[in-house]
User: What shape does this take?
Amino acid sequence: MPHSYEERFGFLVSDIARLQAIQFDRRGRQRLVLSRAQCRVALYLSTLGPMSQAKLAETLDVTPMTVARMLDRMQEAGWVQRVPAPNDRRAFMVQATDKVEDALGPALALGDEITALAMQGLSDTERKTLLRLLSVVRGNLASGQAGD
Assistant: This one.
């Protein structure tokens, strides 16, 4: 008997993320100066502030080596800089440069465009409810309450 994945939460969330990424990549290639992965780095650093490469890798859910290579390219282009960590002479913190703020505007606008596409047919109330419910789900998973 075939399994229906259409009503499974994990499948839907993963598939939505995959399709959103495809749309962002397709539309962003011609319009953005940063790749989708670089946009994620820039947004996290801009929003959360400077952090270690290890923390950034954890936040992005990628390997530290992947982050190191990406940061090398971004630093070379002037998007980020590595600065000495205040409490550890051997460590560095990564921070966004002012140049990032100019690039984030178009990236966020593209994200809003894709969100509007994704939410076509939903009323304003339904959109707000969806976002509120997803925030609760994220909070449950982040705090470890889900499944305890």
Residues 9-31 form the longest helix (23 residues). The beta strands are 51-52, 80-85, 88-96. The CA atoms of residues 5 and 138 lie 21 Å apart. The chain has a mean pLDDT of 91.
